[in-house]
Design a protein that fits this description.
Structural class: alpha+beta
Distance between the termini: 26 Å
Strand content: 35-45%
Helix content: 25-40%
CATH architecture of the domain at 28-125: Sandwich
Number of helices: 2
Order of helices and strands: HEEEEEEEEH
CATH class of the domain at 28-125: Mainly Beta
Shape: elongated
């Protein structure tokens, strides 16, 4: 099969993939951190949400140097609790526009009385503006096609000199 045939086949396959690909809708990471907790401590972090959407919260109790004896969190707004207290794991919450406050607290144990937690909060708005991925793919493929075409023209003079 010639280079031209392979190029057209690849362009055709890429076109089919681009046609079947939907728009990408990525969530926004509001908070992603880990930290130490000594004795009994609590922490607060606030977020301003511009549009209604879904919060996904992941709270992890890290086993180093020892697990925390308890680790919990609550989400609040100015008007009260968003949901009941949650422990380790992942939970989703429907939120509206406004300020959201994440409160997490725990108790360390062991001889050092220290533990480590990790928390990640992601926000996915309801009215996500899609990213036009197929257009980007078409631009990439046209650039690759141009590079292949230029390579073919650079090879032609060398083969013509060898046959003379």
């Amino acid at each position: 099969m010639s280079i031209k045939g392979v190029l057209f086949a690849l362009l055709g396959v890429a076109g089919l993939i681009a046609a079947s690909a939907g728009p990408a809708a990525a969530s926004q990471v509001l908070f992603d951190s880990s930290g130490f907790l000594k004795g009994q401590q609590s922490f607060v972090q606030s977020f301003d949400i511009d549009t209604p959407g879904t919060l996904t919260v992941t709270l992890s109790n890290i086993t180093w140097p020892e697990r925390l004896s308890n680790l919990n969190m609550i989400l609040t707004t100015a008007s009260g609790l968003l949901a009941p207290e949650m422990g380790e794991g992942t939970a989703t919450f429907e939120v509206g526009k406004g300020s959201i406050f994440a409160h997490w607290f725990g108790t360390a144990q062991g001889p050092l009385n220290i533990g480590v937690y990790a928390m990640k909060i992601e926000f996915q708005p309801y009215d996500v503006v899609p990213v036009p991925l197929p257009t980007s793919l078409a631009l990439l493929l046209s650039g690759l096609g141009l590079l292949a075409w230029q390579r073919r023209h650079r090879l032609e003079p060398a083969s013509a000199m060898c046959s003379a």
